[in-house]
Amino acid sequence: MIISKYCIGHYVNSCKNSLCQCHGLKQQRRTFLNFPKPNRTREYCGRQLVGHSMDQMFEVVSDVGSYYKFLPWCKKSIVLTSTPSNLKADLIIGFPPINESYTSHVSLVKPYLVKAECVDGKLFHHLLTLWRFSPGLKREQQSCVVDFQVTFEFRSAFHSHLSNLFFDQVARQMEGAFIKEVGRRYGAATMQPRNLRLNNQAIKS
């Protein structure tokens, strides 16, 4: 399947727009942004320079059917339909006190973007997971910049309260599990992951 430059540009630009709300963070560490009540929306953003290629990162993140094998909180992941540009999957997540299933629609633009949205579930009003991959160091082809964003809102006020306690840790574990799986499949990284600022920090080559 051939994806036009317009299509790629549309997805990448929309991704940049969705990430821009995180660029104002003054701290370099990734964190949740707590919005004023009664809005229960939570958002986590991260950016890393990693020692793996864009293609390698894309292949692992887009392999939704294997999530249950390496994501600690994913109990089951079943792909229902799949094309080169999108897929639909049922996932079951479980970490105390939550054990729920939901359906995810995933949009794919290889090797630039993986965008997953929850479309059916009792746990979330909405859940958006966004991965964007861009070139890394000029002197190191086996590198890329990974932008990772999770935005969600629980249906339950109880679950929303719990998110303040442990979801920062869960999001970090999720991000780290993907990078670890890339290393398992393709070999050791060419460099240690480096956290980048979320304000379009230039990458020194």
Automatic annotation (TrEMBL):
<dbReference type="InterPro" id="IPR023393">
    <property type="entry name" value="START-like_dom_sf"/>
</dbReference>
<protein>
    <recommendedName>
        <fullName>Coenzyme Q-binding protein COQ10 START domain-containing protein</fullName>
    </recommendedName>
</protein>
<dbReference type="Pfam" id="PF03364">
    <property type="entry name" value="Polyketide_cyc"/>
</dbReference>
<dbReference type="InterPro" id="IPR005031">
    <property type="entry name" value="COQ10_START"/>
</dbReference>
<dbReference type="GO" id="GO:0048039">
    <property type="term" value="F:ubiquinone binding"/>
</dbReference>
<dbReference type="GO" id="GO:0045333">
    <property type="term" value="P:cellular respiration"/>
</dbReference>
<dbReference type="InterPro" id="IPR044996">
    <property type="entry name" value="COQ10-like"/>
</dbReference>
<comment type="similarity">
    <text>Belongs to the COQ10 family.</text>
</comment>
<comment type="function">
    <text>Required for the function of coenzyme Q in the respiratory chain. May serve as a chaperone or may be involved in the transport of Q6 from its site of synthesis to the catalytic sites of the respiratory complexes.</text>
</comment>
<comment type="subunit">
    <text>Interacts with coenzyme Q.</text>
</comment>
<feature type="domain" description="Coenzyme Q-binding protein COQ10 START">
    <location>
        <begin position="50"/>
        <end position="178"/>
    </location>
</feature>
<dbReference type="GO" id="GO:0005739">
    <property type="term" value="C:mitochondrion"/>
</dbReference>
